[in-house]
Amino acid sequence: MPLDHAQPQTIFLKDYEAPAFAVESIALCFDLREKGTRVLSTMTVVRQSENMPNLVLDGDPQMDLLSIKLDGTPLPAGRISRAGEQLTIKDMPASGVLEIEVEIEPQNNARLEGLYKSGGNFCTQCEAQGFRNITFFPDRPDVMTRFTVRIEADKAAYPVLLSNGNRIEQGDLGAGRHFAVWEDPFKKPAYLFALVAGDLGVLSDQFTTRSGRTVALHIYAKARDLPKCQHAMDSLKRAMRWDEEVYGLEYDLDIYNIVAVSDFNMGAMENKSLNIFNTKYVLADPQIATDTDFDNVEGVIAHEYFHNWTGNRVTCRDWFQLSLKEGLTVFRDQEYSADQASRSIKRIHDVKTLRAFQFPEDAGPLAHPIRPDSYIEINNFYTVTVYNKGAEVIRMMHRLLGVEGFRRGMDLYFQRHDGQAVTCDDFVAAMEDANGADLGQFRLWYAQAGTPELTIEDHWEESTGRYELHIKQSVPQTPGQTEKAPMHMPFLLGLIGPNGQEMDAELVAGEGTRHDAGWLLHIRQSDNRYQFSGLGSRPIPSLLRGFSAPVTIKASLNRADKLFLTAHDSDPFARWEACQDVMIETLLDLVKAVDAGQPLDVGQDLIDACEKILEDAQSDPAFAAELMTLPGEAYIGQMMDVVAVDAIHHARIHLRHVLAHALESHWRRLYREMTDTVFGLSPEQKSRRALKNVALIYLAALGDNETARTHYAQSNNMTDRLAALQVLVNGSDDAARDAAFADFYDRFEMEDLAIDKWFALQALSDKPDTLKTVRTLRNHSAFSLRNPNRLRALVGSFASGNQLRFHAVSGEGYAFLSDIVKHVDQLNPQTAARLVLPLIRHERYDPVRAGLMRKQLQALLNVDGLSKDVYEIVSKSLM
Ligand code: PHE
Ligand code: ZN
Predict the structure, then answer these.
(1) N or C: which end of the chain has fewer CB within 10 A?
(2) Residue 1: pLDDT over 70
C-alpha cells in the first residue's frame, strides 16, 4: 500500500554505540516571548572516539536555526548539513565551544514535547526526546552534562522563573522584563532538563534530612489551587523520610520544586529538582478528589521523588533500558504505598492493573520484553510492560534475595554507578555480586516477552502422607519471538489443613525454602516437581501467594477448594484471588448460559461464601469491598477465546442482581453501619467508605433508585458523590440522573479535574445511547482535543473502559475513535498513539467486529502525514 511519508525507521538495541562526543557543560539562554522564543546554547564539546570526525546533533526538522559558531567564528555553510532530525558538523576538532541560536514557537506547540504553553505559562517536557525541540544537542541519555540556564521574560506575565538546581542570580532587565539564572551542580542527560515561567502561586514547606540538612520544598500551582496542594506536600515529606529509612537515600540538593500544569501527556516527570506534574497527580481536596485520587497523588509524588536516585543519580544508558529506572521506581512507589495503609489491598490493586492492562499487551501484537529490542517511536514504549511488569521483575528479585539481600544489591548499585548512565544488566549484576547469587537464567525476564503460563497438578498419597505438586511452565510465542526458554521465578506456596491452619511439612524433593509466608519454591524448568512429606491429611494448596510471579495459572483446584481458601487462607491476596476465581468461573458459566438461552444459575455455595464475607466485613471493610467487587467486563473477556461482548455484560449484571437479592439485608445493614457522619481521610474512614459505596452498587441492583438519589444529595465529598453518579448513570431513573449531572456541572464548572470525571462517567454508561451522548459531549464547549486529560476522560474512558458500547456490533464506536485519533494525531501524536490502543486487539473478537476494527485501522494507515507514533502501533497491529 503506498504511503505518503517515508517508512519510519526502526532503531535496534544491538546497534548501540557509545557517543562520539561528550558535552562538558551547556549554558542556555531563553528569551521567552509571546511570538517566538529564542534559545542560545553555548556548549563545550569534547571528542570521545577517534574515528568519528563529525559531530551529529539532534534537532526538530522544523526548528529555525539562526546561527552557529565554533570557537567564536560562524561556521561556513559547507561545514554543516541538516537532514531529517540531524544536524551534522563536519570535521569537528577534538574539542570546541559551539554557540547555536535557534527560534522556536512554544505558543504553537500542541505536541506538549519540548517547550510549550499550558494555561498561559511556559513549561517543558523533555523525556524522552523533547529536548531536541528546544535546541540542537546530542539528545540521548548517556550524554550527561552540567546545565546553566538563564531565563528572560516579561515580569508581570511570568513572575516565576524556574529551572533545575539552584537559583544563582536574578534581577530586572528594564522594559518590564526580568531574568533568573539557575545552575544544576549535577551532570544530567537532556531529558531531565526543565524550565517553567509563569504566573503561579506557591505552597512552601521544608524537610530536614537525616543528616540534618534543610531542604526547601515548593509546590507551584495556579493561585486558586494552592489549598489543594497540602496532600501532595505531606506525601512528599513522607516519601523523603521513607527513602531514608528503607534505602538510606537522602535528597541531594537544597531545593525541591514541583509544578502542576493542566496540559500534560503523562502523569508526571522527574526533572532534576523541578518535577513537572499533571495537575491530576498534585491537586487533591475532598471536594474534587476521590479517595483513590488521594492515593494516586501520593503514589505519583513518591514515584517522582524516588526517581531522584533511581533515574537521575543513576540513569539509563539508552532508551531500551527504560525499565532500569521505571520498573525499579514503580516497585519502590508500590512498596512505599503499601507501607502507608494496607499492604494487601495495595497488592490487589497492583495485580488488577497488571492483569487489566499488561497481560493483554503481552498477549497482543505489541508484546515486547521489559527491555525491548527495537522501536520506531520510543514514546510508544512507556508501557505497562516496561513499568508494571518491570516492577514485577524487580519484585521477584526482592523475593528471591530477601529484604536484606535486595538492600545490599541496591547499595552496591549506587556505589558502582552513581553519576553514570547504565543498563538493566548492570543492575542485575549488582544484585548478583552483592549476594553471591546467580541470576543468569533470571535475566530472561528482561529479554523474553509474553506472560508465562503455569499448569499445576497435585497428587496426594494417603498411605505415605506425601503430597506432590507438579508445575509446568510455558512461555507463549510473541511477535518476533517464537522460541522461548523456561524462566526462573519464585513461587510462594501455602499448605492449608482441614482446620484452616497452615500445615507443617518437609520439602523432600524440588528446590525451595521455608518462608514466613509459606514455602518459597523455585521454578526453573518446563517441568517441575515438588514433594512434601510429613502431612497428616491432604493439604489444600494456596498457590502463588502474594502473586509472587507475573504469570497465569491453570490449576486442578476445584470450586470447593477455592471457596475453602476464600474463607481460610491466611494470605489475604490468596483469599481474594480464590474468591475472584470462583466469580470468574461463575461468570463464564453464565455467559455460556446467556448464549445458549438457558436458565442462569449462580450456585448457592458462592452466595454462602459471600454471606460469610459480609458477616465478617467489620474487621476490614476495604478488604470485604475488594472481595465483593466483581471482575470487570474486559477481564472476563480476557478469559474467553472470543470476547462475548453482550453476554458478558448480561452475565455480570445477573450475578450482581443475584448477590444483591440474596444478601439484601446485609447490604442494607452495611450501608447503614459504614456511613460516617463526619468526613475524614484516615485509612479506617476510607475503608468504611469503600464498603459503603460497594453496598450502594448492590442496593441499586435491587432497583432501589432512592438510595442513590439521597446518597448524591447528602454527599459532602467526591468519593461519595462519584459513587452515586456512577450508579445513577446506569440506572433507570433518568430524571434523577439528569438532575445530578446538571448539579455536578454547575458545582464544579471551574474545576477541570472534576469536569474530567463528569465527562468520563457519561462515557462509561452502559445505556444504549452512550455513543450518542459521547458524540454530543465531543462538541461541548468544555471539551478540547488539545487537552490530554479531557481526551482521556471522554474518549479514553469510552474506548477503553466501556467494552459494551465501544464494541457495539454496528462498528460506530470504532469509527468514532478512529476519527478522533486522526484529528488528535495532527496535534499530539504521543497522545493519539495511546488513544488508538483499544482498536488493536481485533483478533480477540468475532469476525464482524474484527473486520470493522481492521477497517478503521487500515483507514488510519492511509492518512496523509500520519505520525510515526500512530504508524508504529497501527502497522504492528495489522501484521
Ligand atoms: N518518566 C516519567 C515517569 O515515570 C513519565 C514520563 C515519560 C513523563 C515521558 C513524560 C514523558 O515518571
Ligand atoms: Zn517513572
Answers:
(1) N
(2) no
Q: Are 630 and 582 in contact (CB under 8 A)?
A: no
Question: What is the DSSP code string of 27-75?
Answer: EEEEE--SS-EEEEEEEEEEE--TT--SEEEE--TT-EEEEEEETTEEP
Query: pLDDT (tens digit, 9 = 90+) per residue, 246-298?
Result: 999 999 999 999 999 999 999 999 999 999 999 999 999 999 999 999 999 99
For residue 333 and ligand 1, the question of a CB distance below 6 A is answered with no
Ligand 2 mean position, distance from CA 613 (Å): 37
- Cα 412 to ligand 2 centroid, rounded to whole Å: 22
Residue 266 beta carbon below 6 angstroms from any ligand 1 atom = yes
Pairing of β 21-31 and β 144-154: parallel
Measured in residues, the chain has a length of 879
Tell me whether residue 183 is one of the annotated catalytic residues: no
Strands (E), 286-419: 315-316, 374-375
Please indicate whether residue 382, judged by its CB atom, sits closer than 6 Å to ligand 1.
Answer: yes
Cis amide linkage into residue 128, ω under 30° from 0 = yes
CB distance 270 to 308 below 8 Å: yes
Please tell me the distance from the alpha carbon of residue 783 to that of residue 774, in angstroms, as a whole number. 11
With a 6 Å cutoff on the Cβ, whether 125 touches ligand 1 is: yes
Which residue's CA lies nearest to atom 9 of ligand 1? 127
Rounded to the nearest angstrom, the distance between the alpha carbon of 66 and the centre of ligand 1 is 31
Q: Tell me: the pLDDT tens digits for 785-818?
A: 999 999 999 999 999 999 999 999 999 999 999 9
- Residue 124's contacts (CB-CB under 8 Å, 6 or more residues apart) are 114, 115, 116, 130, 134, 193, 194, 195, 196, 271, 276
- Contacts of residue 865, defined as CB under 8 A and 6 or more positions apart, other chains included, come to 4, 5, 826
Between the alpha carbon of residue 151 and those of residues 154, 179, 542, the distances in Å are: 10, 5, 60
Catalytic residue among 101, 304, 361, 392: 304
> What is the interface pTM, i.e. ipTM, of the complex?
0.99
Cβ of residue 303 lying under 6 Å from some atom of ligand 1: yes
Rounded distance, CA 288 to CA 526, Å?
Answer: 51
Nearest Cα residue to atom 2 of ligand 1: 269
DSSP 8-class letter at 358: I
State pTM to two decimals: 0.98
- Residue 85 near residue 132, CB atoms below 8 Å: yes
**DSSP calls for 249-267:** ----SSEEEEEEES--SSS
